[in-house]
Design brief:
about 210 residues; two-stranded antiparallel sheet; 8 helices; about 50% helix; binds shikimate-3-phosphate
Length: about 210
């Protein structure tokens, strides 16, 4: 079992491929939310859920919140209401989350980063972590999950992801406080890297202000 010091997972306690035992906690002075960004297939939702469990924070799947707002799936929102309506919902949910007091792990959809009406609410309300993945690997990870993604449901998935990656890359990099390269890593390894960054980031935060 790996040690957890004062509720903070030490970076040195997190070897690749292993998530430390015990519960990690964000210190009281920490920035509030942890927002995971990246291409569809980057692992935002699976990593986010595991991260939230480890940190004992609520997990918010932003797409699921939008589905509740519209009482229908993302695919149906795109088909029946259009992408602009989906993006308006994205902004509305982001505004609500920004004012909620409880720190959360938040996983928005891959296009959230280019929706300024949405990002404006959550920028500065926490740390933004970019899970970087190549279009090839993202396609492999999603497998048949592409059918639930209206922007990827028709045509060649890798080409579509490459176009999204090219057009959003600057936004992903520009918004990110931290970037985690996920190439070839299992979910647990990505979670370990994020926890290490959270821990290291808070040490800087505590001593730097
Ligand atoms: C989108 C990504 C999806 C979802 C919607 C639009 C995008 O989320 O928000 O289909 O613009 O890249 P995931 O990144 O979870 O697939």
């Amino acid at each position: 079992m790996r040690s957890v010091t004062q509720g903070i997972v030490e970076a040195s306690d997190l070897p690749e491929g292993e998530v430390a035992g015990g519960v990690a906690a964000i210190p009281a002075r920490a920035a509030r939310h942890l927002v995971l960004i990246g291409l569809p297939g980057a692992g935002k939702t699976t990593v986010g859920r595991a991260l939230a469990r480890r940190l004992r924070l609520p997990f918010v799947d932003l797409d699921a919140e939008i589905e509740q707002l519209f009482y229908k799936s993302v695919s149906r929102i795109f088909a029946e209401d259009g992408e602009a309506a989906f993006r308006a919902g994205e902004a509305q949910v982001s505004a609500r989350l920004a004012t909620e007091t409880d720190p959360s792990v938040i996983a928005p959809g891959g296009g959230w980063v280019v929706n300024e009406a949405a990002t404006a609410h959550l920028r500065g309300s926490g740390r933004i972590i970019y899970l970087r993945v190549s279009p090839d690997e993202a396609a492999q990870r999603m497998g048949r999950g592409v059918t639930r993604r209206p922007l990827l449901a028709s045509g060649d998935v890798v080409s579509a992801l490459t176009a999204l990656h090219d057009s959003r890359r600057a936004a992903y990099e520009g918004l990110a406080d931290w970037t985690v390269e996920t190439a070839g890593l299992a979910r647990g390894q990505v979670v370990a890297r994020v926890l290490a960054l959270v821990s290291a980031g808070e040490q800087v935060y505590d001593h730097g202000e």
